[in-house]
UniProtKB/TrEMBL annotation:
Protein name according to UniProt: Major facilitator superfamily (MFS) profile domain-containing protein
UniProt keyword Membrane present: yes
Species of provenance: Eucalyptus grandis (Flooded gum)
GO molecular function: monosaccharide transmembrane transporter activity; symporter activity
A GO-annotated cellular component: membrane
Length: 512
């Protein structure tokens, strides 16, 4: 076992006493609201950048190009503007930088302090965006939103994985992704509503309302307890045991508590978690925490999440139709995430990953072909009503596949596979890789669409093939496995087993 505890004493099922209590469910629901920050921003930015009043105030050249361009201009290139994409992407480069600070805060002061810090930074950013009078203030606000996202994405998945019993850890952890999808959906409908406001200030309402999830997370973090793992990590064993009894609903937690203490003691011997995660014994965690978020972004999902209204307008949908179409994808996103919550601990992580990848690939090929047939390489063309409905249906099926596979599992799996001594470092790598490639996609998509045209969907489809093959060969099943016993899964794997020393599974001290 990671952390030097005894695997044999517990048995293969790794079942501890206690169950799912009302207390732990409420706690995880409150914590998962951190996902609202990320989701609201994902949904709001694309809609705002498609609003004429917003473009006219901050990006007049783009506005005039969309309204006055020549009929010979390519539809693919109408919105290509580096500063416009910087409005969306600047948040994610800030989140990347913040995730490293958040890693230290999360380990030194606990998970809830990181959540509070993230909520406050997001609140200030929302206020600045709502009152912005120039591009500079707009970007500063986006950077502060990024700090909030970096702290939330670092702390919330770890918090959820540590609070939840092993047999429902997947479902409760996916509460974070559920909150992201709800945030996206709310943002889509907010954008549709504010677009109807006359007077040119509807976009301000859209941006300023980001303060609502920020306040929910900041206030909620005051009432959240810290996880037993975090309390033990800071040396308060009796308090941690009382908290474990409360969240498990039973006095008999000695076995699980003993395992947590052993893991913490081993973790405290590790003086340099960032250097430690580079050791061969942590090679599986390092690779998974790096490649899962990389592949998650290269699915192409953020082409839809960031720029759905812009994409739909590019392809000839009207302004209201484009916003409503993105709202429809938001509804599909929420419903499909519910599917994941109810199936991830029953069917496992691998099955959802593999099915989702196959479904996404089929849809991407179909979408690329449909756009290619109608717009070709010149970007001049249009859809019939039936073709437009087919395109929307294919994108919805694609979004559904992502929402019950790579969306939630991209956060769940990296957060549950790392032993305590490298957990903050592993989650920080997960967040930073995710944010870096989110930034790349957000910054580059409109230019990529202009140059690669319908081939962009085949480009992302190629990565979906690669990542599905990777999952098939290199990700073992982790459902119902206690976090403290995850090393037995790696040890049994045909490839990763050679990296895991015997004492990491059957007992013994960790190396520094």
């Amino acid at each position: 076992m990671a952390g030097g505890g005894s695997f044999a004493a517990q048995g293969p099922a790794g079942n501890y006493e206690g169950g799912v209590t009302v207390f732990v469910v409420i706690t995880c629901v409150v914590a998962a609201m951190g996902g609202l920050l990320f989701g609201y921003d994902l949904g709001i930015s694309g809609g705002v950048t498609s609003m004429d009043d917003f473009l006219l105030k901050f990006f007049p050249s783009v506005y005039h190009k969309t309204k006055e361009g020549s009929i010979h201009d390519s539809q693919y290139c109408k919105y290509a503007d580096e500063i416009l994409t910087l409005f969306t992407s600047s948040l994610y480069i800030a989140a990347l930088a913040a995730s490293f600070v958040a890693s230290w805060v999360t380990r030194a002061y606990g998970r809830k302090i990181s959540m509070f810090t993230g909520g406050m930074a997001f609140l200030i950013g929302a206020i600045l965006n709502g009152i912005a009078m120039n591009v500079e203030l707009l970007i500063i606000g986006r950077l502060l939103l990024g700090v909030g996202v970096g702290f939330a994405n670092q702390s919330v998945p770890v918090y959820l994985s540590e609070m939840a019993p092993a047999n429902v850890r997947g479902a409760l952890n996916i509460g974070f992704q559920m909150a992201i999808t709800i945030g996206i959906l709310v943002a889509n409908f907010v954008n549709y509503g504010t677009a109807q406001i006359t007077g040119g200030w509807g976009w301000r309402v859209s941006l300023a309302l980001a303060a609502v999830p920020a306040i929910l997370m900041s206030v909620g973090s005051f009432f959240l307890p810290d996880t037993p793992n975090s309390i033990i990590e800071r040396g308060h064993h009796e308090e941690a045991k009382r908290m474990l009894q409360k969240i498990r609903g039973t006095e008999n937690v000695d076995h699980e508590f003993h395992e947590l203490v052993l893991a913490s003691e081993a973790a405290n011997k590790v003086e340099h978690p960032w250097r430690n995660i580079l050791q061969p014994r942590y090679r599986p965690q390092l690779v998974i925490c790096s490649l899962i978020p990389f592949f998650q972004q290269l699915t192409g999902i953020n082409v839809i999440m960031f720029y759905a209204p812009v994409l739909f307008k590019t392809l000839g949908f009207g302004a209201n139709a484009s916003l409503m179409s993105s709202a429809i994808t938001g509804v599909v996103n929420v419903i499909a995430t519910l599917v994941s919550i109810f199936s991830v601990d029953k069917f496992g992580r691998r099955g959802l990953f593999l099915e989702g990848g196959t479904q996404m690939l089929i849809c991407q090929i179909a979408v690329g072909a449909l756009i290619g047939v109608n717009f070709g390489v010149t970007g001049q063309g249009s859809f019939t009503k039936g073709e437009a409905n087919l395109l929307l249906a294919l994108i919805c099926i694609y979004v559904a596949a992502f929402a019950w596979s790579w969306g939630p599992l991209g956060w769940l799996v990296p957060s549950e596979i790392c032993p305590l001594e490298i957990r903050s470092a592993g989650q920080s790598i997960n967040v930073s890789v995710n944010m870096f490639f989110t930034f790349i996609i957000a910054q580059g998509f409109l230019a990529m669409l202009c140059h690669m045209k319908f081939g962009l969907f085949f480009f992302f489809g190629g990565f979906v093939i690669i990542m599905t093959i990777f999952i098939f060969f290199f990700l073992p099943e982790t459902k119902n496995v206690p976090i403290e016993e995850m090393n037995r899964v790696w040890k049994a794997h045909w490839f990763w087993g050679k990296y895991i020393p015997d004492e990491a599974v059957i007992g013994g001290d960790l190396e520094k």
